[in-house]
């Protein structure tokens, strides 16, 4: 539920004062007064998750670790205020938004372009900003859009992927992931692609138009894309 930003601006400093009093309370009576004040603050700001957390402290557990409780309540309140909406108690804070990796998808198959695009769409770190159906068009898109990442097929008309890589190595931007059935990892084509600067090679699924790319190869594509973009691979959805 979205919360009133003006109320939140006043709420957080008062909440932190109350949690500081709770952490330093010398006895149960003082702890209860601090918790009562916090309940009034949470109700006034309509933050249900904090109210629920406070109700769970009735009666106070034995033993009661006031400093640890105050720290947890403070951290959650800060997460709610940062999000601008209520959230389950203890839910991890959303990761800080980073720059979106602007991606070019190059493949002569419209089906494969769609499948690669859909695989990357599962990861909010990536945005496909352009597509190309052959190597010459790919070079035009690279020059015009300056993508951060290029998902590149090898076997294409007009100019193949290795030809794109040779030109890209001289004047292109971003990083390249080769997605191709022709560049078998460990094979000659893959080795040449790596020599020309491709970060990694991902094989296509069996059959150039196989509809299972999103399910069987989607994770591999996302992991390769994150590696090429310098993002943590462990965070791939």
UniProtKB/TrEMBL annotation:
Family annotation (CDD domains): REC_CheB-like
One Pfam family matching this protein: Response_reg
Domain Response regulatory, chain residue ranges per copy: 102-219
Protein name, UniProt field: Response regulator
Keywords: Phosphoprotein
Domain of life: Bacteria
Alphabetical list of InterPro entries matching this protein: CheY-like_superfamily, Sig_transdc_resp-reg_receiver
């Amino acid at each position: 539920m979205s919360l009133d930003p003006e109320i939140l601006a006043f709420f957080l400093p008062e909440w932190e004062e109350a949690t500081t009093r709770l952490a330093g309370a010398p006895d149960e009576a003082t702890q209860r007064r601090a918790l009562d004040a916090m309940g009034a603050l949470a109700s006034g700001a309509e933050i249900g998750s904090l109210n629920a957390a406070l109700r769970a402290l009735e009666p106070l557990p034995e033993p009661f670790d006031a400093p640890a409780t105050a720290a947890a309540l403070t951290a959650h309140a800060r997460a709610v205020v940062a999000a601008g909406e209520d959230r389950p108690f203890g839910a991890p804070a959303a990761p800080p938004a980073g720059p979106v990796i602007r991606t070019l998808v190059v493949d002569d198959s419209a089906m494969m372009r769609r499948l690669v695009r859909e695989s990357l769409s599962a990861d909010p770190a990536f945005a496909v900003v352009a597509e190309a159906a052959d190597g010459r068009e790919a070079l035009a898109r690279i020059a015009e859009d300056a993508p951060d990442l290029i998902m590149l097929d090898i076997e294409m008309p007009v100019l193949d992927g290795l030809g794109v890589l040779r030109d890209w190595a001289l004047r292109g931007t971003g990083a390249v992931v080769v997605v191709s059935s022709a560049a078998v990892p460990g094979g000659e084509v893959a080795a040449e692609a790596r020599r020309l600067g491709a970060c990694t090679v991902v094989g296509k699924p069996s059959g150039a138009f196989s509809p299972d790319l999103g399910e069987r190869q989607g994770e591999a594509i996302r992991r390769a894309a994150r590696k090429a973009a310098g993002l943590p691979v462990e965070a791939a959805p």
